[in-house]
Amino acid sequence: MTVQTQMQQAIASAQSVEASLTQFSLETENQQAKQLYSQLAQQQRGIVTQLEGRYQQILQQEPQFNQN
Q: Domain of life of the organism in this record (predicted)?
């Protein structure tokens, strides 16, 4: 498995976690839980952004990965 594939999978997984947390925050009626899930989703968005940034760095540093 290439670094590119691993990064793509990590980003997809992180996005899935973010989506789940967002869904939990929308579905719960408990206000404390809603706030917690919302905050966690925002933190997860930051993680996704960082992973995407690192992925872009890899593509720039390793042109052979940028064949898509």
A: Bacteria
Dmax of the chain from CA atoms?
A: 49
pLDDT one-digit tens code per residue, 14-23: 999 999 999 9
* DSSP structure class, residue 6: H
Q: How many domains does the chain have?
A: 1
Question: Over the chain, what is the mean pLDDT?
Answer: 92
Query: Whats the size of the chain, residue-wise?
Result: 68
Asked if residue 22 is part of any domain, the answer here is yes
Q: What DSSP string runs through 13-68?
A: HHHHHHHHHHHHHHH---HHHHHHHHHHHHHHHHHHHHHHHHHHHHHHH-GGG---
In a domain? residue 68? no
